[in-house]
What we know:
It holds the Pfam family ig. One of its GO terms (biological process) is immune response-regulating signaling pathway. The chain has strands spanning 5-10, 21-27, 33-38, 41-47, 52-57, 66-74, 77-81, 85-87, 92-94, 98-102, 106-107, 113-118, 124-130, 138-141, 146-149, 158-166, 173-176, 180-184. By secondary structure, the protein is mainly beta. A hairpin with a 7-residue loop joins strand 13 (124-130) and strand 14 (138-141). Strands 9, 11, 13, 14, 16, 17 and 18 form a seven-stranded mixed β-sheet that branches. The chain has two domains: 4-87, Immunoglobulin-like (Sandwich), CATH 2.60.40; 92-184, Immunoglobulin-like, CATH 2.60.40.10.
Amino acid sequence: GAPSVSIFLKPPGVIPPGGSTTICCNCQCDNGNFVLYQNGRQLRTLELRGSRAEFTISNATQKDTGAYSCHYLDGGTVLARSETLYVTVQEFRLPKPVLSALPGHEVAAGAYVIFRCTIAHSSAGCFLYLEGQIEVLGLLSKEQDDFNISPVRRGNGGRYSCQCFSKGTLLEWSAVSKTLDLVVR
């Protein structure tokens, strides 16, 4: 079968103007190149280092907002394409949230874990991110501010963070919380 290509942001989340992030393209491939596209336009080509190529966005501006995808090429032939990753550059106006995990950041497989993202804002919603995943894991809101993983499996371990936004007429963002490493024993 054809190789599968994954794409994700490191660190995940909305980026502030002037900020930086890395678009990571992964593939279980032998050799070849990754070509990064933004809104259907070819941006850059990188050789594979191991199974990953990393494209850095530094000093981000509105021009960096858009839909990104990676194409894996070998000998000029496209063998696989990633899903589409949406990158947003937006000013941070909300306070930085705090991410916590109950009962703690080290748990045994089969246990229950509750993630809580706390922010000093009356009507914010928050996204829960896991580094290496393209999609948001959960939407946390003031009414439902916990995200449960139960039972926990080894695959649930990793680096988590959260980011909040205002639910008013004007969409405003917070910075991304400090990361929390969940270890599943």
